[in-house]
Design brief:
By secondary structure, the chain is α/β, with parallel strands linked by helices. It is built from 5 helices and 5 strands; from the N terminus they run E-H-E-H-E-H-E-H-E-H. Helix 4 links the parallel strand 4 and strand 5. It is elongated and about 55 Å long.
Amino acid sequence: MKKNNKVFIATSSFNEKPAIVEKKNNFKKFKFIKNPLKKKLTGSQIVKFAKNCEYIIAGTENYDKNIIDKLNKLKFLFRMGSGTDNIDIDYLKKKKIKFFKSKITPEAAVAELSVGYILSFYRNLMEH
């Protein structure tokens, strides 16, 4: 089966997909392209790596009118995380590019980790 549908995974925190994903039948029609820099991308880097992709899994990088116009094959943008201030949603709608964002956000895990670090620091747990 030819992999016509290219998915660019822009976010570095979601960059590693489990190998089992490629074995599932409903994912075999997709070719996944990972962010090779494993860091937040600039606009020109997004265009360079995702210019031939129909789908993008986005992180905190900016998707303004200028970048969206250069992504000619883009059909679908999915935002991982809670904010959308880095994406021109109105312009995506105007270009008839579908947009969704995740409903699950990492705020609770981040708060728990922060409290854990604070306790570790004040109790000198790393030394013990």
